[in-house]
User: Which sequence fits this backbone?
């Protein structure tokens, strides 16, 4: 078995902000799905503060990560995984699929691009079952969602 990639090592440390910090280069940049409007985080202190906030205010630190796919090398890697954590905000279990794209240099991880199913997150935060937000669309667009990829 080959050594885990930096992306996998980072994902497997979710919930432990201090362990995550040890992987970062001083100038690390963390970018989250653009559709959420979250600003890019720059620098080890800013990224670490974000990590601490996620696993104190938003989720409990006793989360789980189940690796689904992993690819890459020591310099550039990606991992797709299922993330499950207790939501402090809604007092319920949150589960979603995430992908991390990670680039590394001699000082550690210098770039993280985090992507996840934002629609599923919005459904969760709205108290809806995953995937049901589409049902709120009206007119032809909403009526045709169930037919996507089935016509042809």
Assistant:
């Amino acid at each position: 078995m080959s050594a885990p990639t930096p992306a996998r090592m980072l994902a497997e440390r979710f919930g432990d902000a201090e362990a995550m910090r040890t992987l970062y280069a001083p100038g690390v940049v963390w970018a989250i799905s653009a559709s959420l409007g979250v600003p890019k985080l720059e620098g080890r202190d800013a990224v670490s503060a974000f990590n601490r906030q996620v696993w104190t205010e938003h989720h409990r630190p006793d989360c789980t990560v189940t690796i689904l796919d992993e690819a890459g090398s020591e310099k550039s890697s990606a991992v797709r995984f299922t993330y499950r954590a207790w939501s402090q905000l809604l007092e319920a279990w949150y589960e979603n699929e995430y992908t991390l794209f990670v680039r590394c240099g001699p000082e550690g991880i210098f770039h993280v691009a985090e992507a996840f199913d934002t629609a599923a997150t919005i459904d969760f935060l709205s108290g809806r079952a995953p995937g049901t937000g589409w049902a709120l669309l009206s007119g032809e667009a909403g009526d045709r969602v169930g037919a996507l990829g089935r016509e042809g």
